[in-house]
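Appendix B.2, paired examples.
Example (i):
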Amino acid sequence: MIQDYRMKFYALFMLLALAGCNALIGPHSPTAYENATSLKAEVLVTLGKANTPYSDNEAEVEEIKLKAEKAYEYVKGIPTNQFSTKQWENLKDPNGDLLGKFFKRWKERSTLSDTLIEEYKKLASDAFDEIICLEANKKEATECIAEGDSKNG
């Protein structure tokens, strides 16, 4: 009798735990995946230009900001997609440590050092990889390890 009760309790617990996960992770979206992968490539190329004056690249930066905002609004509109939404918020936040801050610094300083550019390219790449990995895992379990992850050696 006690064993039967424990099994039912365990089954209920697992069901509630899975339901709790579903409340934070929305369904797989090929559009969200495409937005992240294509924007990652554009961002990395543009960051590499930060050793030239911001004013020469302002239109390109504004286009990237717009695309990032569109990607954010897209994932934000998917029900139960809080994890993805939060990742995009962190990526574009001008007061954070990723794209928003990089573009803000570039504009303030006009040009940035190659060392700083490479550091931010790595940070941005890893952030996009996390977004891409989360989206890929919504479709099928995938092992995604960022290059800088300690599990990778």
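Example (ii):
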Amino acid sequence: MKKFLLIFLLFFTGCSIKTAIKQDPLYEKTLTYTQRGQIINSLETKALIDAVYLNPLYPEKFTKPTFLIGVYNDFHNTLQNQEFKLTLNNTEPVKISKKIPSFILYKNFPFYNEWMNYYIVEFNQTQKPYVLEYKSKDWGEVKFTF
């Protein structure tokens, strides 16, 4: 009897979680505009990066191509350091800010990770498609196309 009850509770809980996620349109839309990558060297992860293209999620708030970037790396765990470079269509950001506006509930976004540092990164207008590149001097690169 206890096994049956445990199985029933697990099944019921699992279904309610799936239903809650399916009914969150912002989560689903955010998932569409989120990409994740990592730079690996010799089976060791040197950097993780998450990129969320914010313009389609908040069209009234951003006029220039703007991204929420989460990074985790071996170099002070910051976006701005001498080892890594972030570009959009081969152009550097015009603004990088650690202050994330309160209307961006990024802790509820897909792939949120407490170990990462998050930044709002703004670029000048450029042609689409947008190719966001996070490149290391020594270990390779990650490219996302939006």
